[in-house]
Amino acid sequence: MQAAHYAEFCLRNSGSMPPTLFLIGNDGPMMFLPEKLANDQDKDEFATTARLVCIAHNASACVMALEAWMKTAKPDEKLDTTEPPSEAIDRQEVIVLMGEDRKNQLQQFLPIVRSDNGKFFNLTESALPTMDNMQGRFAQILSPKIPDAKMQALTKAVLTVKRVKGVRLGKPGR
């Protein structure tokens, strides 16, 4: 719910939402945003760094929230996977929330409604069924294994060298 609220806040204030990782770890709730996402290499770097942030903070759950283009198959038709959603005429702009814990994945698609002048108007609930599995660079962010203290310390050191910082959202236990 916090990720959906944040998405709506960003869209109302700037018209877009940067990809954002939310996590619950040893230090309580946190969020992490990329410095830039100008190309595929930046996107891959953000996904890799998000995985490292989850290890460093021993995340027990995370949500990757991002803006995306989506296309769906019409009833009784097969989905055309040769056409990228960003190039489809019948594409839909959505916020994708991909939640994970060590045993489960849950996805939610929130269609973005814009007014005629292109300004954000509202997020709506999607009528799409929940998927069993999500794949791609921004999926499977949380490691299925609980990192030990040594791995957490090593990963924190790597993030420090890379000058990566998460933002704490609250105090542990609250």
Beta-strand fraction estimate: 25-35%
Order of helices and strands: HEEHEEEEHE
Number-wise, the strands total 7
Mean pLDDT: 87
Tell me the Rg in angstroms: 17 Å
Helical stretch tally: 3
Low-confidence stretches: none
* Shape category: globular
**Describe the biggest sheet?**
7 strands, antiparallel
End-to-end separation in angstroms reads 16 Å
Could you outline the blueprint of secondary structure elements for this entry?
Layout: H1 2-14, E1 20-25, E2 28-32, H2 40-56, E3 61-70, E4 92-101, E5 105-114, E6 120-123, H3 149-161, E7 167-168
Antiparallel strand pairs: 1-2, 1-3, 2-7, 3-4, 4-5, 5-6
Helix pairs in contact: 2-3
Describe this structure as you would to a colleague:
The protein is α+β, with helices and mostly antiparallel strands and 174 residues long. It is built from three helices and seven strands. The chain has a domain at 2-67 and 96-108 and 130-168. Helices cover 25% and strands 27% of the residues.
Keywords, please?
174 residues, alpha+beta, 7-stranded antiparallel sheet, 25% helix
